[in-house]
Structure formats: C-alpha cells, structure tokens
Design a protein that fits this description.
- This protein has three helices and eight strands; from the N terminus they run ββααββββββα.
- The protein is α+β, with helices and mostly antiparallel strands and about 180 residues long.
- Strands 1, 2, 3, 4, 5, 6, 7 and 8 form an eight-stranded antiparallel beta sheet that branches.
Length: about 180
C-alpha cells in the first residue's frame, strides 16, 4: 500500500494505493485502449451539463458507477478532483488533466482503494459539435492493468468492450430524455 497523497482528496477509511499519473499523450500510447464513438441528441454544452451532474453518471455508466463525488468546487477545469464509487465498493480518485467545456475532458486516476486492479487508468472525452443541436463524442478509455487484473484481463476484455458500448447507448438515452 502506498501513502495517500496529502494534496489530493481520498477516503481515509479505505486503503489507498497510488496509481501512475500521466499527461494527455497517454491516451494514444497506453498498453490497453478502448475507443468508442457515439452521436448524441444534444449540444456539446448540454453534454457537459450531463458530465458535471454527479447524479447522471450512475444512470448511464451502469453497471459500474454507484456514486460520483466532485471534490473540487465549480467551475471545473484542469486540476479538478473527483471520487468515483463503484458498485463493488472500490473507490477511485481522479485528477482532471484536460478540460475545455463543450469540447474536451480528460482525467487520470491518482489512487484507488483496491490493490492490483490498475497501475494507470484514464479517460478522454472529445466532443465535436455537429452544428445542428447534436454532437459526436469520441470516448477513449486507456489503462495499464495491475498484476491481479492482468492475470484475468484476456478473459474480461470482450465484456469490457460490450460494457463500454452499453454505456454509450445509455448516455444517448439520458441525453434524449433530458434534452430531446
């Protein structure tokens, strides 16, 4: 177990395991990458309203995310932190390394509450305005599995791909319901 970062929020009641942090170039060179694109029935600004709403994440990123806690005040941007609680109880601690409202958002984990899952992990959200009240999202999930996860990674990789596709379908439903 590594020491918690005193400059970053984390749950003191849970174990803390540090992750490798990185810059925005990591999404194109990570050992494991998933890239998913989806057309959404909302403007880029509306999509960021969904992203900024902690209650929306458990609606579209399920199964998986149980709760999102922004640990930095608005306005969100580079340096913003967030805690995400997963349905199994694992907590991840995120640092936003890229943020342009309506265009781009990226984060990486700086810590997790369970060992051996991820050595490094991050997500990038690139949004293109279709100029007709809709937008296109390109979502990249990039990571290096920890030793424990690496042992089963080959078995779960296909289900992860399907889960990420499901998330995009559910995000589209949330946007349609909220803005359509």
């Amino acid at each position: 177990m590594t020491s918690p970062r005193p400059d970053k929020p984390h749950n003191p009641d849970k174990p803390y395991f540090g992750c490798k942090t990185f810059g925005t170039d990591y999404y194109d060179r990570a050992p494991q990458r998933y890239v998913t694109e989806v057309a959404l029935p909302c403007t880029p600004e509306q999509l960021f309203e969904v992203f900024e709403d902690p209650a929306s994440w458990p609606q579209w990123a399920r199964p998986g995310i149980a709760k999102v806690i922004w640990t930095s005040p608005k306005p969100y941007g580079v340096g913003t932190t967030r805690t995400v609680v997963f349905t199994g109880g694992m907590e991840v601690y995120e640092d936003f390394i890229g943020w342009e409202t309506g265009r781009y958002m990226a984060f990486c984990f700086y810590g997790v509450s369970q060992d051996d899952v991820f050595q490094a992990f991050g997500e990038r959200y690139e949004v293109e305005d279709n100029e007709d009240g809709s937008c296109r999202l390109r979502w990249t999930v990039a990571y290096e599995p920890g030793p424990g996860f690496a042992r089963v990674h080959g078995l779960v990789r296909p289900s992860m791909w399907l889960t990420f596709k499901l998330y995009m379908w559910q995000l589209k439903r949330v946007c349609r319901r909220q803005f359509g």
